[in-house]
Every structure is written in structure tokens, then in C-alpha cells.
Amino acid sequence: MAKVGDGAEYNPVMLAQCGLSAYGKWLKSKEGKDLAIAVAYGEKLIETQDKRGAFPNDYQHRYYVTKQMMPAGWTSAMAQGQALSLFARLFAGTGDQKFIAAGKLALNYLLTPTYKGGVRTTMASLDPSLKGYVFFEEVVTEPNDNYILNGYMFALLGLYDWSKVPSPNAADQKLSAHFFKEGIQTLEKILPYYEVDGLSVYDLTHYTFNNRKNILVTASYTGVHVYLLHALHSVTGSSILKDYEDNWHNDLIEIANSEQAEQ
Fold first, then answer.
1. Helix 97-110 and helix 149-163, axial crossing angle in degrees, nearest 10
2. All domains of the chain, ordered by start, with CATH?
3. Which of 81, 151, 186, 263 shows the greatest Cβ crowding within 10 Å of its Cβ?
4. What's the whole-number mean pLDDT along residues 45-65?
């Protein structure tokens, strides 16, 4: 659960991540109790899924750049992708068709355009010439897109995982693989825009919202980006992803060494 104000709400991303962690533990231990914990998280995640296939966040959220308050019920491509990654594993581990059904719904919502209430958009807010490049938004903002990098890469990993699940509906696998391929092409195209002073920025609002004074660039987020680039490179072999993974990782090492030298 996530702490929200004076209370707590189930957070779909947290549920999915806890489930993935438990599943990973089960792969090592092969103890039934570990798989049961992963399944319990997956089942709780399904309980939060609505009829569209989305996993709404039942609390308000204020985006740090726009300051707009999103009402309870806002959705996230990161949640959709993490759910797909968990459901793919739980189906592999249990054979339970309910995880296929939930995954099909989750995929459908992930691919729903923002103008229809979904989380899929294009790179047109960065430049109109990039309207042919797909993007999945962790947080949907108006009037422009923000392009949060880590949430996007988590969504891509979900598409990849779901494309590998044997399903009664082979169209799901084909559709997931198609958008994963398109998503990687986008990632290769836009990574240069995220680099600022040797580190990676959280989003592209310094372009899309002219957010020049409040650019969110931290070593911790760069570390997350390096981890995700490593995962995506491992399944694509993309030299572009590998170059950015290595460059940002080396920059983090330099920062750590510099801080250590100053102590």
C-alpha cells in the first residue's frame, strides 16, 4: 500500500513490483509459499483493474512541472507495463488463465491513445516531425506530453514480456511484439534529448513545457535508467542502448569517485 495523506491506498505499481520480487524469489527457492505470495499480489492487482483494463490510482497526484492536480483515478503506462510483466510470469508459473485474461485487458488499455482516455501518445509534443514515433506516458499531462523516461521503459519491458507468453490469442503476442519494436525505435531516437551534464533527466518537460529552471536530474534516476537500458539491451542487442547504458554508468562512477575524494 502507498501512504496517501492520512490514509493508505493500494498502488498498482507497488503491487506489481512486490509480485515480481516474490516471483523472482520463487525462481530461486522453488518453495510454494513464495509463489503463493506472488500470486496473491497478482490477484490483488486484478482486483484493482477496471473494465477498461486500466489500474487506476485512487488518490490525487500533482505533477511537479505543471502543478495540475490529477483527480483520483489517473492511470499510468508504467502500471500497465509492470502488470503485464507480472501476469506473464504468473501464467508461466501457474498456468492460470485468469492472468491471461487480465493481461489482455491491460494490453488493450496500454495501447489506447491519450485522446481516447488512455496512455499511448506520440513524440509530437517534442517536435511535430516526430509524430510517427510512439510513446507510453507514465503520467498523462496537458496540454503537452512530458515523456517520463523510466515509466516508458518499464512499459516497453511489459510489452516484451507479454509478447513471449503463449496465449490462446496469438494476436496478442503479435501486437505486443509490434509495439515493442516501435517503442525501441522511439527510445533509440530520443535518448539524446535526455542527456544533461552527463546524467539523464527524468522527463522532457524542459522541451515540452519550457521547464528550464526545475529540471529533474539526479544520480538516482540515472541509475534506474542505466538498469532499464541494460535490461532492454539484453533482449534487443541495440548498440545505441548499450552506448547510453555505458556512458551514463561511467558518469555515475565518476560522480561517486569524486564525492568519495572530497570526503
1. 140
2. 2-262 (1.50.10.20)
3. 81
4. 95
